[in-house]
Amino acid sequence: PLVIWAIYKDKPGYELARRAAARAFNFGLTGYLIVLITLLSGFVYIFTMVVPGMASTNDPSTAFSSAMGMFAPITLMVLIGCVVQIMMIIFQIIAAVKSNSGEDYKYPLPTLPILR
Questions:
Q1: Do 25 and 115 meet the contact criterion of CB atoms below 8 Å apart?
Q2: ∠ CA 32-43-25, rounded to 5°
Q3: What digits encode the pLDDT tens for the residues 20-65?
Q4: Maximum C-alpha span of the chain
Q5: Of 7, 13, 63, 107, which is most buried with the most CB atoms under 10 A?
Q6: pLDDT in tens, 53-94
Q7: CA distances from 61 to 38, 55, 67, 78 (A)
Q8: Which positions ≥6 away from 37 have C-beta within 8 Å?
Q9: Which of 74, 76, 73, 55 has its CA nearest to residue 64?
C-alpha cells in the first residue's frame, strides 16, 4: 500500500487508489502494532512473572505447577494476536474486492491516521 500511495498520491484521477492505499497502510500498521504490543507484553510477563516464579522454588513439581497457572495470560495474549491477524486478513480481502469494483471502502475499526 505504501508504494501504491507514493506512486499515485499526486496524480490526478487516481484519488480512489490513493485513498484505498492510504487506508490499507494505516489499517495494516495499526494491526501490526497491536500484535507487536501484545507480543512484547507477553515477553515482559514471561520474564517478570514466570521465570522468577519458577526459579524461586526448589521443588521441580511445584515450579511446574505454579508456572502452568501463570501461562493463562500468555494464552490470552496469543489468542488476541491471532484474532487480530485473522480480522486483518478478512478486512483487507474485503477492502481489495470493494476497491477493485470502484467502491470507497472504509475499514470498520479505528486506525492510526499516518497517511492521508
A1: yes
A2: 5
A3: 999 999 999 999 999 899 888 888 877 777 666 666 666 666 656 6
A4: 71
A5: 107
A6: 666 666 666 656 666 666 777 788 888 889 989 999 999 999
A7: 29, 12, 10, 25
A8: none
A9: 55
DSSP H or E stretch at residue 63: helix 60-70
Q: What is the dihedral of CA 8, 28, 96, 20, to 10 degrees?
A: -30
Closest CA to 3 of 35, 33, 18: 18
Q: Tell me how far apart the alpha carbons of residues 41 and 43 are, in angstroms, rounded to a whole number.
A: 5
- Whole-angstrom Cα distance, residue 38 to residue 46? 12
* Cα 35 to Cα 80: distance, rounded to the nearest angstrom: 8
Instruction: At 112, give phi and psi (nearest 5°).
Output: -75, 125
Phi, psi dihedral angles at 78 (to 5 degrees): -65, -40
